[in-house]
Amino acid sequence: MTFTSSLKQRWNDADSLVCVGLDPEPAKFPARFANDADAVFSFCRDIADATAQYACAFKPQIAHFAALGAEDALARLIAHIHATHPGVPVILDSKRGDIGSTAQHYAAEAFDRYAADAVTANPYLGRDSVQPFLDRADRGVVILCRTSNPGAGDLQDLVIDGRPLYQHVAEKVAREWNTNGNCSLVVGATWPAQLKEVRAIVGDDVPFLVPGVGAQGGDVEAVVTNAKNAAGTGLMVSSSRAILYASKGDDYAEAAANAARELQDQINRFR
Amino acid sequence: MTFTSSLKQRWNDADSLVCVGLDPEPAKFPARFANDADAVFSFCRDIADATAQYACAFKPQIAHFAALGAEDALARLIAHIHATHPGVPVILDSKRGDIGSTAQHYAAEAFDRYAADAVTANPYLGRDSVQPFLDRADRGVVILCRTSNPGAGDLQDLVIDGRPLYQHVAEKVAREWNTNGNCSLVVGATWPAQLKEVRAIVGDDVPFLVPGVGAQGGDVEAVVTNAKNAAGTGLMVSSSRAILYASKGDDYAEAAANAARELQDQINRFR
Fold first, then answer.
1. Contact by Cβ (8 Å): A14, A56
2. What is the band of A215 on the pLDDT scale with cuts at 50, 70, 90?
3. Which family does the entry's similarity section mention (chains A, B) (predicted)?
4. Where are the domains of chain A?
5. Is B95 a known active-site residue?
6. B102: chain A residues, CB-CB within 8 Å
7. How confident is residue A216, by pLDDT bands cut at 50, 70 and 90?
8. I need a labelling partner for A59 at 20 to 30 A (CA). Which of A44, A71, A156, B246 fits?
9. Is the complex ipTM higher than 0.85?
């Protein structure tokens, strides 16, 4: 199965467009993990197990592991998800981007070392910097288009030939880079108008990874109505902190499951 | 000492603008490392020790370590350089870029976990994505401007208000982002005309990290004459493969030293 077909299958099987972000921050962990030497793995595993039934994908964010020197926990977490929830693809959120010969090593990091089904990538260096990811036809490449952060427009809104840079990125990806049909785009939930514009450019077949609901303030109704495709899918609406840290008590897993299910329900009302 | 002051001091002390790139690829290591379980560290350490006297900086490229699961070797390598060659700053080449809250974790990765003196960063997400790096006033932030790879122009050459994107990046960095005086720019050796344009935009005080001489084909004379500042410095001319893999024999360290010294001499002829 390719990432794209796994994702389509999962949208239907789980009736969910929720992507559960796994961003471990030990200071926010429930008290019971205070003496767990393997807390990063244990906490993320518990969240994954509790939320899998509501998830179309998992998205571990690698900086959170790297800052802690927890690469081993990340590898074991992804292996655990593959073994325990085999229908749920894993996107390694690392936003890599480098010259082609180096990008090959980043592709090896994401796809071979961590066995991720997809990886996020930065387009600033151009097509040859993304090619080693694109060449792995069974894996997904989720390319930054219009990001969710306040400063997104600093570069992404600069206007070339009457259209902002992020629209040029969307067009390049859809028309030129997506020859293996394995590209997705990152478009932030905080920019509903831009979600609509990008969907109009790329059509129904390019999935969007949509961060920015929850802690960053994106509105679910606006996201879904503006960004869904004709089938009422096409989205991985990502939530991290609002799910992971829904409770600091012993009900953390249940609270995370509830938060994921509520987001699923909220999304499904507008599909 | 800040990164910027360390670098200036080192340009003078070593009379060198050579940045030695540390990109370990075990398949290219000399035969003597075949049975060394710690080959990634041992090889890079030997290269660093052999080339330090000719180097204004070292630049380990993290993808090469990450693909091998060799984060521990990277940490020990940087610690070794700091201990053994304290005047030579270390740039962690990781080209990170993410929303602010995540970028804080990447800053912790580069500056706290690995104790790097500087880090490379991607500007596509805008200022707030770089801010956690900029805020570390004692460390350097080396921002991608015009990269050395063939596809660099795909996005970087798109024209906004009569000027290509990479020039807008150069201007933003020099005029807006560099409030702590800790910014440098990546401008590839493969684009001599662009080196000259960017130097004209940013003036003498923003150092350039210039990859692309050697294996990528950049011309040293064109780089130095177009990109040096008024003091005949301002450059970190990076070479990786041509130094690291100068010999596969037992003379690998001596060959690396010779390659670094030759690049130093070549550069100094045109300063």
1. yes
2. confident
3. Belongs to the OMP decarboxylase family. Type 2 subfamily.
4. 3-268
5. yes
6. 23, 61, 63-64
7. confident
8. A156
9. yes
